[in-house]
């Protein structure tokens, strides 16, 4: 629509005027991802978003995603201004792991190395020995296991259970879940496979074990996009936020992508394959934060330094 066109032009001007760069997650809406691409920003998973933001020369990073991604950007780049289209965009994993309860859990298990998923608050990261994203979680846990370490993992129990199965590591799991991935149903995927037996199944391991078991490839968003290119199949059933279809279809324009069903019986679900918090990022509030700086992220200095340690371990980790 013409209204969006005008907004997009305005945002392009504001990005320049603010020496700002737009960093967007794969799960944000197509218009945001496209704008990030067109303006020299990046569209990526949370690990690559963090790396891109830290390396970039811009004065201001505009992070389109959820709160922890903006916080991570600020922790890694304290000298930059970090803006988000909305400060209300959280994550069920972050909400389900309050720092005080988590800290008590760690205190009760002092013999374990604390590894947390990137989808956590700065305060939870500050209590951890390691931060990981789903792109490198298995590699890091393998490395710790080889050193004989026992793990305390938080917050996603499905991802934790998947890593445990892959590595055989001794892992004590926090009881958290992603409201989007938790909705994928094995029955629905099996039914779809019945219709398209030649289709490959791609699954993000935040999904329940019954769904991951059906996967031809399980992996992070960037790993799934890579797999879409490498697999010979020209039909793909994809169990992750449907925002990923923008980049995945670009990567394999000739292939047919199917959304994995979120209900086995056609019933509606809470979140239906699209994260409600990612969806809060829109052209209107993106322009708004660039105009008035309303969505700026601040992280207290002591907290920042404490959270930086386990984040740096992740960024410096070589397999
Ligand atoms: O589910 C998420 O929020 C993901 C996949 C984040 C990430 O690591 O990119
Ligand atoms: Fe959190 Fe799930 Fe949304 Fe990702 S998709 S931000 S894990 S609620």
Automatic annotation (TrEMBL):
<dbReference type="InterPro" id="IPR003473">
    <property type="entry name" value="NadA"/>
</dbReference>
<keyword id="KW-0963">Cytoplasm</keyword>
<keyword id="KW-0411">Iron-sulfur</keyword>
<dbReference type="Pfam" id="PF02445">
    <property type="entry name" value="NadA"/>
</dbReference>
<dbReference type="GO" id="GO:0046872">
    <property type="term" value="F:metal ion binding"/>
</dbReference>
<dbReference type="GO" id="GO:0051539">
    <property type="term" value="F:4 iron, 4 sulfur cluster binding"/>
</dbReference>
<comment type="pathway">
    <text>Cofactor biosynthesis; NAD(+) biosynthesis; quinolinate from iminoaspartate: step 1/1.</text>
</comment>
<keyword id="KW-0408">Iron</keyword>
<protein>
    <recommendedName>
        <fullName>Quinolinate synthase</fullName>
        <ecNumber>2.5.1.72</ecNumber>
    </recommendedName>
</protein>
<dbReference type="InterPro" id="IPR036094">
    <property type="entry name" value="NadA_sf"/>
</dbReference>
<dbReference type="GO" id="GO:0005829">
    <property type="term" value="C:cytosol"/>
</dbReference>
<keyword id="KW-0479">Metal-binding</keyword>
<dbReference type="GO" id="GO:0034628">
    <property type="term" value="P:'de novo' NAD+ biosynthetic process from L-aspartate"/>
</dbReference>
<dbReference type="GO" id="GO:0008987">
    <property type="term" value="F:quinolinate synthetase A activity"/>
</dbReference>
<keyword id="KW-0004">4Fe-4S</keyword>
<keyword id="KW-0662">Pyridine nucleotide biosynthesis</keyword>
<keyword id="KW-0808">Transferase</keyword>
């Amino acid at each position: 629509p013409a209204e969006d066109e005008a907004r997009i032009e305005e945002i392009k001007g504001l990005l320049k005027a603010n020496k700002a760069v737009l960093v967007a997650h794969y799960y944000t809406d197509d218009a945001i991802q496209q704008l990030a691409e067109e303006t020299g920003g990046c569209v990526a998973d949370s690990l690559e978003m963090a790396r891109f933001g830290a390396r970039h020369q811009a004065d201001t990073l505009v992070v389109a995603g959820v709160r922890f991604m903006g916080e991570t950007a600020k922790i890694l780049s304290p000298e930059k201004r970090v803006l988000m289209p909305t400060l209300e965009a959280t994550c069920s994993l972050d909400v389900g792991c309050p720092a005080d309860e988590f800290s008590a859990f760690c205190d009760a298990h002092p013999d374990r190395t604390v590894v947390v998923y990137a989808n956590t608050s700065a305060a939870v990261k500050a209590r951890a020995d390691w931060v990981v994203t789903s792109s490198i979680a298995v590699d890091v846990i393998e490395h710790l296991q080889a050193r004989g370490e026992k793990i305390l993992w938080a917050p996603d129990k499905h991802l934790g259970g998947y890593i445990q199965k892959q590595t055989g590591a001794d892992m004590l799991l926090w009881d958290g879940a992603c409201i989007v991935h938790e909705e994928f149903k094995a029955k629905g995927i099996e039914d779809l496979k019945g219709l398209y037996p030649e289709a490959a199944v791609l699954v993000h391991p935040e999904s329940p074990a019954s769904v991951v078991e059906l996967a031809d490839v399980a992996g992070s968003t960037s790993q799934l996009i890579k797999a879409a290119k490498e697999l010979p199949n020209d039909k793909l059933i994809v169990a992750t936020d449907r925002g990923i279809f923008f980049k995945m279809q670009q990567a394999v324009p000739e292939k047919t992508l199917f959304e994995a069903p979120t209900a086995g019986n056609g019933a509606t679900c809470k979140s239906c394959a699209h994260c409600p918090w990612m969806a809060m990022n829109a052209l209107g509030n993106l322009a708004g934060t660039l105009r008035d700086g309303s969505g700026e992220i601040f992280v207290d200095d002591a907290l920042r330094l404490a959270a930086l340690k386990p984040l740096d371990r992740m960024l410096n980790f070589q397999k």
